[in-house]
């Protein structure tokens, strides 16, 4: 019996798919790369932007044929789309061939739900927001790098964002559970771990203990055998000097800060409920650059938030030019049902949003290229992640600062930590030479 999982969205979804795979393997299923061979097909969905949702719906539309052809195949719609208000019922009506629809909190209940769906004549739905996520089986997607969630959910209610509604309130895992998991991974030979949370900087606040994210970073850094520690995502409002110091003192913690700015206009930041100003953000960057000059800073930006004027957008461009991010993930604002911003006046038209993102991407690409060119001639520590997708003779890895490096090698280098000399730069990638 085979399973196939298609994952959309963020790293937390990638991790959740690893848990679904863990459950299935302990039930005796094996993975397949061919969805036609699958006895269980899971679509793990993302609801953060309209585009991500549309991709899922068009895939579901295409799956009707396979479902008709393959009698007995179970089709599962998992994750954030299912958890949106009213969505599960609508999906059930529109795609009656789906067997099971579950929100992300049902992860611990998956085996029973699958059992129930197998015998049920109609689609089974579970969108209960409560659920236990500790001690679940995990089938890791890689053998040398692993995701480790440190908290689930989010309390921030940024006005554009659906995450708090679909993943529930923030719940930190106990530090001892996280450390046990990291120690176990290190013993199994994992070289790199990434601590995951919607806002890692507020870790521990809900636990009422004298232990915060910086303490966790220091403890994880002490785990023997481990070579690299990463973390995402940071929230500027909860980001502290103590965290920067834990990064620079840490031998394994990588010098990369992903710190979403979202907008460079104070008016828009307020309307987004982000809880910081551009001045505060600028000071954080100064602090990072002062204490850790070689570090990389990346960001997320939204253009076309309701009410964003030309002047507000110019404020964002100004910040981008001044801060000179190593990379930026820029998004066009997408109204999400149930969020405060979707109801706000002054929704920006599509053409303006498109013009703004094109300009922002152009400026950022130039900056990323200039920053990457500064690395030509340097030697970088690279953890090799796999073969390059476009060229099987090339390998792909990442620097400590999270930059992608392609290089050629006659030997299999996957999972190795190497020193690579940088010879060429593009906005999103570097090319290197290893000898
Ligand atoms: N918890 C993380 C990730 C949230 S989702 C964080 O706070 O950074 C990842 C990114 O998607 C966000 O940083 C934001 O830039 C973008 N995003 C979220 N909701 C969006 C929306 N409705 N429209 C466009 N972009 C959005
Ligand atoms: Fe969404 Fe804001 Fe929470 Fe990030 S911090 S998940 S953007 S509500």
Task: Explain what you see.
With 435 residues, the chain is of the alpha/beta class. The protein folds into three domains: 2-126, Rossmann fold, CATH 3.40.50.12160; 145-373, tm_1862 like domain (pyruvate-formate lyase- activating enzyme), CATH 3.80.30; 379-433, OB fold (Dihydrolipoamide Acetyltransferase, E2P), CATH 2.40.50.140. Helix content is 35%, strand content 22%. The chain has helices at 11-26, 50-69, 80-83, 87-94, 110-119, 163-167, 175-187, 213-221, 241-249, 266-271, 278-291, 310-323, 350-373; strands at residues 2-7, 30-31, 40-45, 74-79, 100-102, 124-126, 145-149, 151-152, 171-172, 192-196, 228-232, 256-258, 296-303, 327-332, 379-387, 394-398, 404-408, 417-425, 429-433. A six-stranded parallel sheet has the order 2-1-3-4-5-6, with helices on both faces. Helix 8 (213-221) runs parallel beside helix 9, helix 9 runs parallel beside helix 11 (278-291) and helix 12 (310-323) packs parallel to helix 13 (350-373). The chain starts with a strand and ends with a strand. The mean pLDDT is 96. Bound molecules: S-adenosyl-L-homocysteine and iron/sulfur cluster.
